[in-house]
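Structure request: Serine/threonine-protein kinase 19 isoform X2, Neophocaena asiaeorientalis asiaeorientalis.
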Amino acid sequence: MNRKRHRLVPEAFGQKRRREGGDVEADPLRGESGSARAAVAELLRLFPRVLFEDALPPIALRSQVYSLVPDRTVADRQLVRGVRATDRRRFRALRALTRFSPSLTRSTSYSAIQQALGLSGPGIAPGTAVPRRMLQRACQIMKKALQEQGEIRIIQLGFDSDAQGIIFTEDYRTRVLKACDGRPYAGAVQKFLASVLPACSDLSFQQDQMIQTFGFRDPEITQLVNAGVLTVRDAGSWWLAVPGAGRFIKCFVKGRQAVLGMVRKAKYRELLLSELLGRRAPAAARLGLAYHVHDLIGAQLVDCVSTTSGTLLRLPET
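Returned structure:
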């Protein structure tokens, strides 16, 4: 009897220890850094490129980012910073300063350095001597900032007014060039990628803007629409689009409903996250369970409840 009790007690504690250790693994969707940039990179790795024959750039949704960066204000601010068009004139001027005298003669030049270095407080009077190494350091910081700015693009996916996709600019450029190669509209697309994309970070473009600012003619805009680079928003306005994105949208909408149905059909309309991810994905969830669960959490289609067994996904009460 004593031997039996001696054997059972450690086993019970052993099970508890394994369950507690498994809590960390039960929430594999939770991010660590709180960085929107890192969240986007992690989500894009979940995108099934093979499903679309690598014809589409990997796409994440803004709602998915919220599942990894719960503070939506911080996430939106970081995403806007990543989309913002680059201003390289300031960097070129700052780089030129390092080749000449280390003494600055303009307050505006110092302001650029102050902003690049992230300094705060009152400005320094014109003519203040600044060490050359500070200028070089400012160049390095500004170069990194310019690389980060304009790194991602946000697109309107269309199936919902709040549905916005996030893609890396370089992936977008590569896939668009590949899609239009040898087509009659290739010239208009290349012009758009070279002039509009780096200079304008807007979700949509106006007719006056395209014609007067970027020098496009009406036939060229029509070619961009035919190429799938732009899609009509309303009269004289177009959304930035991804050629062939309709296939992704169709898969996404069906998969979202299928995975949401898994939670809805569960007992009490709730399901452990670890249990959901361990199940076989429905045929309609071709993008993968993890990809869709990020969306359900970030879009607040399910509530996340912390339990001793891990995160519980529960349908909101209606």
